[in-house]
Design a protein that fits this description.
Blueprint: H1 2-8, H2 28-31, E1 34-37, E2 43-49, H3 52-55, H4 65-73, E3 77-84, E4 90-92, E5 97-101, H5 102-105, H6 116-127, E6 131-135, E7 153-156, E8 159-163, H7 165-168, H8 177-185, E9 195-199, E10 219-220, E11 224-229, H9 235-245, E12 250-255, H10 257-260
Parallel strand pairs: 2-3, 5-6, 8-9, 11-12
Antiparallel strand pairs: 1-2, 4-5, 7-8, 10-11
Length: 276
């Protein structure tokens, strides 16, 4: 079925390959392989533990997906047994800084007894990051305990994407304005303050839900930027911001209203693989 859909869309199937493996859910950002580079520059896969967002969901197959991809791609699997980590719970700027929420990493349902310093040591070992921005986040407000990719994203080593301060408390009930202030004062690994670019929320609640949608959960490809849309009047405003930010890529809006009912958008169901 997928081959037929892609062929109909005139996708070059020579550019597509499939790895078939059992899974428990669709959220590839959290369960899929986290690609890293070894000191020799070759790709490998960092295999953190996945426990169903704090044992809230079945996960026996999802926890095996990185190993399945490593086997299929014939890539080294770097096991990281010291930390439970979902891909959506960490943002990196590519220049030594990582951004995370304590609620979805330093949480008893993921990493009981693990200190912030211990978590940072594991992340440095896996990704080479040396500077950290920690938000408090919100525990128990959704299945993820507030992933960072729903609150703020890195555009580059000097720019953060988030929402306006007046919209911040609409992302999660119980979110602290202090987290927004941390974003406003955050610095990169070189000690330079980040510039904040703000995106709107949807003007109205998403169809069938009692809350607004965010445009932060976007995906960057080599030639495209995929942006969630909701049949909302703010869709075009968000797309225009991304066109300004990524003038060298085609910006494509994708309706996520059906997917959003299950709690995620485009970033949540994708996981990038660097060119080897």
């Amino acid at each position: 079925r997928i081959t037929k859909l892609l062929t109909h869309a005139k996708v070059a199937m020579s550019q597509v390959d499939f790895t078939l493996a059992k899974s428990d859910d669709v959220w590839a950002r959290d369960t899929g392989p986290l690609f890293v580079r070894q000191p020799n520059g070759k790709l490998a896969i960092a295999d953190f533990k996945f426990n169903g967002w704090g044992n809230k969901a079945p996960h026996q197959y999802d926890n095996r997906l990185p190993a399945a991809v490593a086997k299929a791609k014939k890539l080294p699997l770097l096991r990281m047994p010291g930390l439970v980590l979902e891909g959506g719970s960490i943002e990196m700027d590519g220049h030594g800084t990582a951004m995370l929420c304590k609620s979805s990493v330093l949480n008893r349902n993921r990493n009981p007894g693990v200190s912030q310093a211990q978590a940072e040591a594991e992340l440095t070992k896996a990704f080479g990051v040396t500077h950290f921005i920690w938000l408090d986040g919100v525990k128990g407000e959704d299945i993820t305990d507030a992933h960072i990719d729903g609150m703020a994203r890195f555009y580059d080593e000097r720019t953060l994407l988030t929402v306006a301060k007046s919209d911040f408390n609409r992302l999660y009930d119980g979110i602290h304005q202090q987290d927004y202030e941390r974003l406003q004062t955050a610095t990169n690994a070189a000690g330079k303050r980040y510039k904040l670019v703000t995106l709107p929320l949807t003007a109205k609640n998403v169809r069938g839900l009692d809350y607004q949608g965010s445009y932060l959960n976007y995906y960057v490809g080599n030639k495209v930027v995929l942006v969630p849309t909701y049949h909302d009047r703010n869709d075009q405003a968000a797309l225009q911001i991304y066109r300004r930010l990524y003038p060298d890529r085609k910006v494509v809006g994708i309706d996520v209203t059906a997917l959003y009912r299950y709690g995620g958008m485009l970033h949540c169901v994708t996981q990038q693989q660097p060119v080897d």
